[in-house]
Amino acid sequence: MTNQQAILAVMLLAGTVVAAQAAKLNVLFIIADDLNRSLPCYGQPIVKTPNLDRLAARAVRFDRAYCQYPVCSPSRVSFLSGRRPEQTRMYGNEDASRTPSLKDAVFMPEYFRQQGYFTARVGKVFHIGRDVPECWDVTEEGTPDGKVIYQPQEPEKLGLTDSIVKEDRLDGDTGEGGHWYKLKPVEEKLIDPNTARRVSELIEQGTKGGKPFFVACGFRRPHLPWMVPNDFFELYAPEKLPLPVMGNVPRPGGDPKKPAASDASRRAALRGYLACISFMDRQLGRVLDTMDRLKLWDNTIVVMLGDNGYHLGTRGGYWGKGTPYEESCGVPLLIAAPGKAQATGCQRVVEYVDFYPTLADLCGLPAPRDVAGRSLSPLLADPSAPWDHAAFTVNARNNQPSNLAVSTERFRYIEYADAKKPVELYDIQADPREWTNLAAKPEHAETLAKLKQLAAEHCQRFWK
Question: 231: left (phi > 0), else alpha (psi -120 to 50), else beta?
Fold first, then answer.
């Protein structure tokens, strides 16, 4: 063998070793239900999330990430299948996750299982009661008794009726509304602590099984009801909380003729939501402690996200999701990956359908077929890398298309199925609350036409 041949052989061997190492990366996929960007790493210092902060210090923070549908089940089915809602035809929380349109689809965790991964989920990953068993080696609800419990039933089903210190709800007409419970110190009876404990156990089990792992962790909070021990409410003095700014815009849900909630009620509701974020953060810390203890950061990708955004008494006094606006469609997203950028933000517009190809790419797996997104690996290496892609979010009412939104780095465009409703255009950089509709301004006619064309090209199937 010549020297040149020997060098080539060494290079080929090194490439094989690198590829093998990449294929062995683990995945920890964490979802917090209805978590919006009210976080310190997104510029909200009043919120107490030390564990999200410590994860953000290891991660790329995506400042302009968008879900494909601003409601739980359609959003989750979309990013777990890698297909857009107009492909999945999932427009509500009622149907099975494997819709007729997805009968032959390979969901993301199912794909990792096919590729030799140990896969497990605990808690709400698919919508509650809508799991896809073929995705997992281990699948658990996260509830103490292992049974499916929907959020409105939690106090009774978890035996917490006698542990409620105070119960209250938003007054006035608010959209989705708000309902909160202050509890005695009963953390061990709640779902998220049990989820964190089981996820930690399964991570450890995965490290000993001779396979890489894909473990999905689905936290219930801060989804309604805002129900956590009183200690978490006490983290936030109501009088020090900023009053949610409603703006002079129509409320996108509820009865606009009825008054919004009172100032005191809005502050109390905000307190309940933030208390739930801090409670979820405590449970996240238990999972991150397991990552530390087992020294997994060098061979594990960690993804942390909220499944959709959430209005907190903004936009005319609306509380909830399911709107085409930034606070509902825009979502928090942190990705910590070995050898990639850390403790930095990315201003590029990305979508949740990007998860599937990204994780396959980072793990050195064959590119999955029939997925709509693209790998975010270039942005994880360089968050300022060129990236000229828009994000598309759709929404339906009564299983019929209702509206869609197109998000670019500067603008957001909204159109409706109801031809009587005018289109909307917002300069998201100058007007982040989307209070000034620019669609009728002549100086924005060219931008409006471009975004209309993008919507026509990418969302045709939605309107059909």
Answer: alpha
